Amino acid sequence: MSSLQAVHNIPEICAQLGITDVVLSPGSRCAPLTIAFARHPAIKVRTVPDERAAAFIGLGLAQAQRRAVALVCTSGTAGLNYAPAVAEAYFQQIPLVLFTADRPPEWIDQLDGQTIRQTDLYGAHAKGTFTFPADTGHADAQWHATRIVSEAIGLAEQFPAGPVQVNIPLREPFYPKAGEELQFERVKVTREVPGRPQLPESVLQELRQAIRSNSRVLVVGGQHPANTELLLALRQFAAAYQVPVVGDVIANLHLPAAPDFDQRLRPLGHQDIFMAVPEPGLKEALKPELLITFGQSLISKALKLYLRNVRPAQHWHIQSAGAVADTFQSLTKVVRMEPADFFGACAYPPRPLSSGEGEPDVTKTKSFGSPSPFSERGPGGEAHIAQPDATRVAARPAPAGPVRLNWPSNGSQLSATEATAKAAYLKPWLAAENWATDFLEEFMRQPKQPFNEFTAIYRALLQLPDRTALHLANSMAVRYANILGLPKGRMVEVFANRGTSGIDGCTSTAIGSALAMPDQPVVLLTGDVAFFYDRNAFWHNYPTPNLRVILLNNHAGGIFRMIDGPRQQPELEEFFETRQMLRAENTARDFNLRYFAVSSFAELESALPVFFAPESGASLLEITTDSPTNAEFFEHYRAQVRTSFSS
């Protein structure tokens, strides 16, 4: 048996535990891993030379596929370049398994080449770290090695998902002899059986009563993958209790819950507009007494600051496991359930089983694999088949027949007195949302605008193809999209690196998504600093004909002109904006992207239909604007918001 057999077995363990995609960066020390993964018949291997880009591409693959992706790199600083993506994956709860090749332990700190201290390389930003045995000649060491890889994959996918490092010390020789075939043994693996926590019916009844009796209940969703089960449960909950539901664009609550579902149940999404209204009466009318939250971070600073300021008497956060942040400084209760299960159980109290009736069938949902509005596909394109999950204690009954609810309507769980009180709280939320929707449409269509990126993005978002995966780069791109929202009824799932909110891997993440979803349009909306910072995202040999990049190039970090503080400083242009004169045409040529350049509304309207057309292939649309003009127009927008509101 080869001395590297335990290493060669790693791809087999990955394949048995559901990992189908590996992103590796070339190197010598990682050669045994590279060869083993490349030769395994069930693993799709992609090579990306830049480790920082490789890690974010892996993150994009895992985001889109909703399962763990493996990364492989050589020893030394290669693994350090994974760090930004590792931190993003940790805070965004994306499962990555990082196989970092290393020198044997006796050569650490001995001035050997490409040697650093790699044990626990990512510290508090990884869920865990494992050290592979340096010598695996003994049967116990082989068992240990197999167990480590199984445990690492299980830990990465266990809720809350995240990155896990497996550091692998390797001794020479690294390469098999010419003509030597690798053997993939059928090794023993340890599987995690997913389950979903349920609360006792008595506890759920107490929670329902608290929701029913409180007239000022507000639901706020943070960043969350698109999930049809959650969308349906939330809309049923909102109708049953007559409560407003608010979500940023990255919460993916804007998606239709079902083809025949009443779109008046669409959650509110224009809080960035109406929360900016300086109207004390409005703020008082919107004040919640019971705040119910789920998901991760918020984009809307206005909503975040408002909730911190009003301090609801009660704040429940719904999360099945893991640490919970007290974002609004008012947390009073953590409810350990999946959000879809919580809202469904509250909207539909379980009916008693009739004599002889068994438990209803339930659908398996892995901790990271919540249902998506888009069809999920396996490595060969086959649809995943859901399996029964015996670990789930009980399922909420599904409503019979198509769901068609009106909003506002009489809450199905409320007395007349309760319904009247809740309607009084719901009314100003609906009025504010309706005003913001009308205001935005009127403002964005006003004639004689200077060419600016805010309006340009508004027009581009209106033409997004259906079933688009929309990636929003950090800085102004994600903020613009959150203000503007997405076309009603359109199937557009939104992704953004809001775990750490850095610009360093936004393009790479979108490319990972394009590789994972070749049959869907993937659109990246990005600014010039984020785009040029991550140009190595395109440095690979894999076609992405479904990728469209919309680049806002104002030749500066334009956000600093819109933030009080830096925009008043004489150092603004040189030290905050960091002005640059780059254009993306050469990048498009280097990486075989079809290039469109626009600098007027007429050019934009002409380019968009061709740019989005499926036959255009991988394309880049560069929207060139002037940073001071953008800042002036956006300030005009903000002034109009402050003065145009009428209750």
TrEMBL record:
InterPro entries membership: MenaQ_synth_MenD, THDP-binding, Thiamin_PyroP_enz_TPP-bd_dom, TPP_enzyme_TPP-bd
Pfam families, sorted: TPP_enzyme_C, TPP_enzyme_N
Enzyme Commission code: 2.2.1.9
Reactions it catalyzes: isochorismate + 2-oxoglutarate + H(+) = 5-enolpyruvoyl-6-hydroxy-2-succinyl-cyclohex-3-ene-1-carboxylate + CO2
Keyword Manganese: yes
Enzyme class per UniProt: transferase
Cofactor binding note: Binds 1 thiamine pyrophosphate per subunit.
Cofactor(s) demanded: thiamine diphosphate; Mg(2+); Mn(2+)
Ranges of Low complexity composition bias in the record: 392-404
Domain Thiamine pyrophosphate enzyme N-terminal TPP-binding: 10-110
Ranges where the record places region Disordered: 353-384, 392-411
Gene3D superfamilies per record: 3.40.50.970, TPP-binding domain
Pathway: Quinol/quinone metabolism; 1,4-dihydroxy-2-naphthoate biosynthesis; 1,4-dihydroxy-2-naphthoate from chorismate: step 2/7; Quinol/quinone metabolism; menaquinone biosynthesis
Listed GO MF terms: 2-succinyl-5-enolpyruvyl-6-hydroxy-3-cyclohexene-1-carboxylic-acid synthase activity; magnesium ion binding; manganese ion binding; thiamine pyrophosphate binding
Membrane-traversing stretches: none
Family stated for the protein in its record: Belongs to the TPP enzyme family. MenD subfamily.
Cited HAMAP family: MenD
Function text: Catalyzes the thiamine diphosphate-dependent decarboxylation of 2-oxoglutarate and the subsequent addition of the resulting succinic semialdehyde-thiamine pyrophosphate anion to isochorismate to yield 2-succinyl-5-enolpyruvyl-6-hydroxy-3-cyclohexene-1-carboxylate (SEPHCHC).
Name listed for the protein in its UniProt record: 2-succinyl-5-enolpyruvyl-6-hydroxy-3-cyclohexene-1-carboxylate synthase
Species this protein is from: Hymenobacter taeanensis
